[in-house]
Amino acid sequence: MATIFRSEEMTLSQLYLQPDAAYSTIAELGELGIVQFRDLNPNVNAFQRKFVNEVRRCEEMERKLRFLEGEIKKDELSLTEPHENLDAPKAREMIDLEAIIDKLDHELKEINTNADALMRNFNELTELKYNLAMTQAFFQDAQQIGMNSSENILEQNLDSVDQYSTTVTVGMKLGFLSGVIARDRMNGFERMLWRVCRGNVYLKQAEIPQLIEDPLTGEKIHKTVFVVFFQGEQLKTRVQKICEGFRANIYPCPENSNDRRELAMGVMTRLEDLNVILRQTHDHRQRVLLETSKTIRTWQIKVKKIKAIYHTMNMFNNDVARKCLIAECWTPNSQIQTVQLALRKGSELSGSGSVSSVLNRMITDEQPPTHHKLNKFTQGFQNLVDAYGVATYREINPMPFVLITFPFLFAVMFGDAGHGLVVTSFALWMVLKENSLKNKWRKQEVWTIFFGGRYIILLMGLFSIYTGLIYNDVFSKSINIFGSSWRVKFGDETLNKSDTVILEPTSYNYSRTSEYRQMYSGAPYPFGLDPVWQLAENKITFTNSAKMKFAIIIGIIQMGFGVFLSLWNHFHFRHYHGILVEFLPQIIFLACIFFYLIILIFYKWSMYDGKDATSAPSLLIHLINMMLLSYPTDPPSSTKFYSSQRALQTALLGFAVICIPWLLVGKPIYKMLQKIKQENLSTTTMNDQASNDIEMNTHNNHHEQVDMSEVWVEQGIHTIEYFLGCISHTASYLRLWALSLAHAQLSEVLWHMVFQIGLSMNGYLGGIASFLVFMPWSTLTVFILLLMEGLSAFLHALRLHWVEFQSKFYKGEGYPFVPFSFKTILEETPFDT
Amino acid sequence: MEKFGVALIIFTLFWGLIGIVLPFLIPKGPNKRLIQIMLILTSACCWLFWLCFYLHQWKPLFGPQLKSTDARILRSLWGQEL
Q: Which PANTHER family does this UniProt record tie to the protein (chain A) (predicted)?
């Protein structure tokens, strides 16, 4: 029936599942998302649960899938997201899935290691190639020098120049080491060589122009080829050690230039082969990853579902005697049929269709979880209410009322039709483009907050347009649709005499003077504030009065509405005593003082005219005097303004004051009477019953005794809270006036200080100036007025609902219904895109 | 005096239509109650808001204070006929 007003009725039920059918049944229930399972093994360690192995296997698969995903991302391939909802996989599918994922994992790891080894080989060969090329150059130069010198020195060694070219130049046997070192280490290397070998080595170096990939680190760095010439074995070891220290790669270099040429050619061919192999390996890897990228998301979703199912099954009680799994779950009453269907379907799917699972409803005293049926529109507002506290089971849900009153109170504080239009168009864009925007920018938290509240913002914007039109405020300007009710009928002499003139507020000649001119038509502007006030210097004085009165009126009405909702709660829970001891004193107090104030406001509006301006009663003073029982005769605004005022107000005050002890004492007395009745009942039956009943009753009495003092204290707090709250909350509603004033003033300042500069210039210059000035004006409007003021009004409207409205009836002590649903599990932890 | 009544009746009827008559015409569906509540609350809030500002301006205790230049402009712009 009226299920939007309260949370759904829930039942605790036990499911008896056949072990074979359990998996498919849980899969079905997970797809439906209508039951919340309870953990029947809370004291069991996670590693001792029944299905811990399956969970472990799922985690292994997840790890491998993450590794594969990382590899796919490294190669910058895109993952295809599955479009339709996939069914939960069958139990047997898990083994197949494991095998496939395992195979792919091994394959990719193999490819990776192979590729690494090949790459290292390739880099070494590249360095060797450069090494050979550079040393070739050295030795050729050396040959030149050697040839030149040997021409002079030794003629007979000409034929052996090739072989002993190095030894010829100096005439002694020289050894050499050639290698490649990183360019930035070269200087240190040289210095170290010089120091250690005491200058007895000769170093020749040449830079490799291209960037080479270092075989160890894989980075591309500049390298230099060097050749170190030394004499003797000791120096050789020293040089070798230094090369190791500086991480220079030493490559063998044959002395014979023919050998060098052969080696160089061999290196070239090997490099080419390696290139081909590397390319093939890379292509193979790409192919494997491309294949995987098509299905990896599907597998990830499937694995998540399997894991979720086994986690859930870990919560069940394994009844060995009856050979079934017992699960306890909360489900809404309306969905019990669906659950039974799911049970049947699960047994059919698993093949053991002969014996089906059983659903057994349990009766329990525990408080069920709170479940509201929501759609995408109401979800946002329910979140606002739940942020304060989740509704107690089956109490009135404030959401349907908050749905309208929250945007309305926001609008009262925001009231500018132009700003409202901008907000509405933003919200409309979000709502109309819902489907395409839903998955965009998921990581941006600010955007997700705005997008999640798009319906709230839409309503806020629409109401703001309405209140803006009533305040007659469009970007701080008024619009004149129906024609003002005020006219200026002053002559030129009056206008020349003074800087300002005040228009005559009465619509008839009450003092019968000849100078009277009717400047007010007698009928107010039909819709909203008269446009003449926009130009008035005393506009704020006028609107202050109106806005404050409205704020008080709407506040008291909302609070009264809250108290009536508590009455509805009393009826629903059959706490009829609550109506007598709680609802009546609350509403009488509120009515006697605050509804009376509202009546006074309407009375003053209709009975007092421009002619009574000096003697019109000040309602605030009258309210204070009513409380203090003082009725002065002195300032005309504080004297009685209707004949039976003293009597009536004293009577109202009397009724209100009675409510205080009524609320304080009523409920505890009722509870005490209840206790006495129970004790009488138990004493009459005590004589017939066994002794353990007596113990139970005394136990109950002990329980009751502790409760009594608690009841008194609780009721005392509740009384003070309510009565003080009535007054402070009423005043708290004045923030509606305060924020709307701030907004209007900010808007006006922005216009006069920024935009008007451009608009007040004449001619073409004015046009350009207006164009230029629009940018700062609009930026400041958006950031200060829309965002900052909007956030502020949102916050204050929310506070008014949470504290002033909900404290009259809302307990908010429930816990939310969190069903086992694959959809929420998949949405909670989205895959990184 | 009549003009006062005319606007009052028009707006009360307008919001009354939305808040009292329209809820009975909402077709049956899962959101029937919700829409009814929305209509009733919207019309109640909006009507009350309009009414408060209307009544406040009905018998003003003081008139607008205008700069003499603005008064001159309004005198020629709006004329003298009420």
A: V-TYPE PROTON ATPASE SUBUNIT A, VACUOLAR PROTON ATPASES
